[in-house]
Amino acid sequence: MNDIIKLILTVIIVWIGFNFLTWFIKRTALIFKLLGLKKSCNAKVSLLSFPYRPMWLVREGADARVEIMNTVYLIRFYSGGGISKSVHFANESYSCIYMRLKGLRGVRGMGRSSLAMSSGINLYAKVVYTPPFPIPEEYSESEKHIVRALILNPAPGMLSYVTEEKTSIKIAFTGDELYGIKVFTASTFERYAERMMREEQRLLREARGEYDYFFG
């Protein structure tokens, strides 16, 4: 009996350790991606809170700020649990992370190619309270373009939410808005920020009367 108990405890410890290590590695990779924007986009990157803060200690406001040209990204980190988990937002303040016994086949992250899960049994793991995420007063009269972003890291297998009208539940994909906040994974946010910078540069060139010409 003692051997069985030791085996069970060992499996639990290994499972917890593996999940923590995976979360730590992915969160570290996210931080490096944000800092990498300094070089690729000449961005100003500020970590406003301890990036390895557990979800139950998330504070009000943004966890990071990224300034690129005339755009300011206010970023909050959300641990989505990985591909085996799903996240559902009931509203802007409450969400639930759960595991599904069936229906994981065909789900590929949060990309546009993601498929909705088939019917199965949901194992609800935990309810998460998300503190308010307002735009700071310092930007209330600013001419900068403010974007609130939620980066799911690790990203879940599926993200769903109740619409603001509370009339239906929808599946969210990278770049979609939930209650005025854009959702991303670490990689898709990096690509989005770079693409928006190039678009802003193009508009500035056009405003100065400079155009890109292509010759066949």
Walk me through the structure:
The structure is a single chain. The strands form two sheets. Strands 1-2-3-7-11-10 form a six-stranded mixed sheet. A five-stranded mixed sheet has the order 6-5-4-8-9, with no helix packed on it. It has one domain. Helix content is 29%, strand content 27%. The longest helix has 40 residues, at 2-41. It contains two helices and eleven strands.
Task: Please tag this protein with its features.
5-stranded mixed beta sheet, 216 residues, alpha/beta, elongated, single chain, 11 strands
Order of helices and strands: HEEEEEEEEEEEH
Helical content stands at 25-40%
**What kind of sheet is the major sheet?**
6 strands, mixed
* Count of beta strands: 11
Note the overall shape.
elongated
Report low-confidence residues grouped into runs of 5 or more: 103-119
Instruction: Give the overall average pLDDT.
Output: 83
Rg for CA atoms: 20 Å
Q: How many discrete domains?
A: 1
- Strand content range: 25-35%
Number of helical elements: 2
Summing up helix and strand content along with how strands pair, one would put the structural category as: alpha/beta
Side by side, the strands of the main sheet go 1-2-3-7-11-10
Terminal CA distance reads 78 Å
What's the quaternary structure here? single chain
